[in-house]
Write a structure and sequence with these properties.
Number of helices: 10
CATH topology of the largest domain: Helix Hairpins
Largest sheet: 6 strands, antiparallel, barrel
Structural class: alpha+beta
Number of strands: 14
Helix content: 40-55%
Length: 427
């Protein structure tokens, strides 16, 4: 058998089989395996993120305030130049009106005083040097209410009537006291007369006096009794008169206080109406700022220029602003976007290669899409400072593009994901 096998191989073949393999054949597979392991490790540790793109606008949490005129007309005065920092409630401009602003402000300050004497002095003051314009009718109504009150208070008719009634009451009370004394004396005389009459009656019965004398004594008693009754009646009438006079005094005082209260209410109502009219006039013709910030003219406004009603005059940009980006992303790959992820924001007005980009984080994601897009809010991490350390000016609602950096995934995972997709398609 061995001879047969040897015979089947040629001399070159035996020489090839007996020669040992070269080092490449001996170690090549190991090298290839090591390279594959290294590539696998590199693919595992090499991670990079996907980017979800979108568009949005740059806004602020406290948006700029647009100052719009309520009435048309000419600009009388501009109080601040363009770009000035102003405080809240600052007067920005005054529109043309038939009333004078300084006169109305002085009138308002005086009306708010609590000193009655100052209000009366204002009501009786000369009006020829002031200009109240359309505020004049409510001013005249208030002035009339004050004058009516002053006239009523200065009228002494009620005071005289009260004084006369009180004098009459005092006199009648004195008469009542005298009547009581007189009645007391009459009652004593009546008692004495009664005793004389009874004594005369006893004598008459015993026959010691005449019938005429008895009748005279009895007549004296009846006269005294009538006088006492008349005195009591007069005292009751005096007391009734005093009661009626006291009632008249109470009614006079009540009517006086009621009239005073009515006149004071008229003053208060007319004063409130006047102050409301001044406030309405101020809102229509005096333009103020409702917030702190920087004033920006919408046009090159100058005094005596005509302005239309509801025209935009100024924009007040707040001092401290929190900038946001209101953006939208397509529904595709929106599931990878999460709150807190980093966002790269490029302002269309400031090229990225020259200014860099703004940095932000996803703050809120809408729960449902709108027209196949999700609304997201992005908070700026460093405000308007770019990655090139440059601060760009804020332009309201300027367009921006966003790149949302999603979670990082290794190269190996991405390769395995593609292989898995191919296998799933074949199956």
């Amino acid at each position: 058998m061995e001879e047969k096998n040897i015979a089947l191989r040629s001399e070159p073949m035996n020489e090839f089989l007996s020669r040992p393999p070269s080092w490449m054949l001996r170690y090549g597979l190991v090298v290839v395996f090591c390279l594959l392991v290294c590539l696998g490790l590199v693919a595992h540790f090499l991670r990079y993120s996907d980017v979800v793109k979108g568009n949005g606008v740059l806004i602020t949490k406290n948006p700029p305030l647009h100052i719009i005129t309520k009435s048309g007309g000419k600009i009388v005065q501009l109080y601040y130049p363009n770009g000035t920092l102003i405080k809240r409630d600052s007067i920005l401009a005054e529109m043309e009106s038939s009333a004078n602003f300084q006169d109305l402000e002085l009138l308002k300050s005086k009306l708010q005083e609590t000193d009655s004497a100052a209000l009366y002095k204002l009501a009786f003051s000369e009006d020829s040097v002031v200009q109240y314009g359309e505020i004049n009718p409510p001013y005249l109504a208030w002035k009339k209410a004050v004058l009516d009150f002053q006239t009523f208070v200065q009228d002494k008719t009620t005071a005289i009537r009260l004084r006369n009634l009180q004098t009459q009451i005092g006199q009648n009370q004195a008469l009542v006291r005298l009547s009581k004394q007189q009645l007391g004396w009459l009652k004593k005389e009546l008692d004495l007369t009664l005793e004389r009459t009874e004594a005369e009656q006893s004598l008459y019965k015993e026959g010691m006096t005449s019938k005429m004398d008895f009748y005279e004594k009895q007549k004296d008693y009846l006269n005294k009794q009538g006088q006492a009754t008349a005195a009591e009646k007069g005292m009751v009438q005096l007391q009734m008169t005093i009661t009626d006079q006291q009632k008249q005094v109470a009614e006079l005082r009540e009517n006086y206080q009621s009239e005073v209260s009515k006149l004071l209410d008229a003053i208060a109502q007319s004063k409130m109406s006047l102050l409301n009219m001044i406030s309405t006039w101020t809102q229509s013709y005096i333009i103020r700022s409702a917030i702190d910030g920087k004033i920006a003219y919408t046009k090159d406004w100058q005094p005596n220029m005509n302005v239309k009603a509801q025209e935009d005059l100024f924009t007040i940009i707040p001092h401290q602003q929190q900038y946001l980006v209101a953006a939208s992303i397509p529904t595709q790959n929106a599931g990878a976007v999460k709150v807190g992820q980093e966002v790269q924001i490029v302002n269309a007005s400031f090229p990225e290669d020259k200014y860099g980009f703004l940095e932000g984080k996803v703050k809120r994601i809408s729960l449902t899409p709108d027209q196949e897009k999700y609304r997201i809010d992005i908070a700026l991490t460093n405000g308007l400072q770019t990655t090139f350390k440059k601060s760009i000016p804020y332009k309201p609602e300027s367009n921006v593009s966003i790149d949302i950096v999603t979670e990082k995934m290794s190269l190996l995972d991405r390769l395995l994901m593609q292989i898995r997709k191919l296998l799933d398609k074949r199956i």
